[in-house]
Amino acid sequence: MAILQPNPSALLQMLRPARSSSVAVGNANANPPMQQHQQQQQQYETMRLVMGRREASMFALTSLLLSGGVRLAAAAEEEAPLQQLQETQQAEELQPQPQAQECEWKVMESGLSFCDLVVGTGTAPVKGNVIRLHYQGRREDGFVFDSSYDRGEPFSFQLNSAGVMKGIYEAILGSGDEFPPMRPGGKRKVRVPPELGFGKNPGMCPRFWSGPCTVPANSVLLYDLEYLGLWKFEDDTRPFHLFT
Fold first, then answer.
1. Is 92 inside a domain boundary?
2. pTM above threshold 0.70
3. What is the DSSP code (8-state) at residue 238?
4. Are 48 and 112 within one domain?
5. Residue 241 forms part of a structural domain
6. Per residue of the chain (244 residues), what is the pLDDT tens digit?
7. Within this chain, do residues 222 and 156 fall inside the same structural domain, yes or no?
8. Contact (Cβ atoms closer than 8 angstroms) between residue 195 and residue 170
9. Which residue range is the domain that position 34 belongs to?
10. Does 80 fall in a domain?
11. d(Cα 177, Cα 187) in Å, to the nearest integer?
C-alpha cells in the first residue's frame, strides 16, 4: 500500500530536477534561434551592401566601357577619311603618271623653233588683225617672267611687227607651208633665240627701273602660245593694245 501512496514531498523533490532541467534545456534551445536570426540578418545586410557595391561597380564599368566605345567609334570615324585619303594617294602613286605631251620640234631659217601641241582650225590671222592670245613666257631655267594665264585674262593686241616681239610675230603668222600660221584653238610651243627676243638688252624690266630686270640680256625665251582668234567687242570689251 505504501507503494500505491507515495510521499508528496518526495515526489516534488523528484519533479524539481526534471523541471529545472527542462527549463534549462528550454532556455538552451530558445537562445540559438535568436542568435541564428541575428546572424542571418547581419549576413543579409552584408550581402545587400556587397551586392549594392557590386551593382554600382558593374554600372560604372558598363558606363566606362560604353563611353570608351563611343570615343573609339568617334575616333574611328575621324580616322576613316584620313585613312581613305592616304589609301587613295598611295593608289595614285602606284598608277602610272601621264607623261608630258610631246611634239615634233622644227627649226626655221631665222633660228626660231616651234612645236604644235594642238593644230587649230578656222581662219588664220594676217598682219594688222587684232587678235586674242593666251601665253606664258619662261627663261631656260624655267622661271616664268610673264603669263596671261596667271592674270586670268587673254592678251588682246594688234598683230604688227612694229610693236610685237619679232619671235612672237613670226610664231603666230608663220612663213609658208613648212611653218604654217596659227589658227583658232591652236597651241604652239616656241623657242625664241636672243636675236628674235630682247637681244643684247635685258627684258621685263620694271617701270622707272625700280628693280632688276627678270630677263637677262642675250636670253633664250620659251613661250607657250594659245591662239584664241580675232578680237571681238562682244567677247572682250577691254581696250586692246594698238601698235603702230
1. no
2. no
3. S
4. no
5. no
6. 333 444 444 434 544 544 444 333 344 444 566 666 677 677 656 656 655 565 555 655 555 555 555 455 555 565 666 666 666 666 555 544 444 457 889 999 899 999 999 999 999 999 999 999 999 999 999 999 999 999 999 999 999 877 789 999 999 999 877 899 999 999 999 999 999 999 999 999 987 767 789 999 999 999 999 999 998 876 666 666 655 4
7. yes
8. no
9. 13-86
10. yes
11. 17
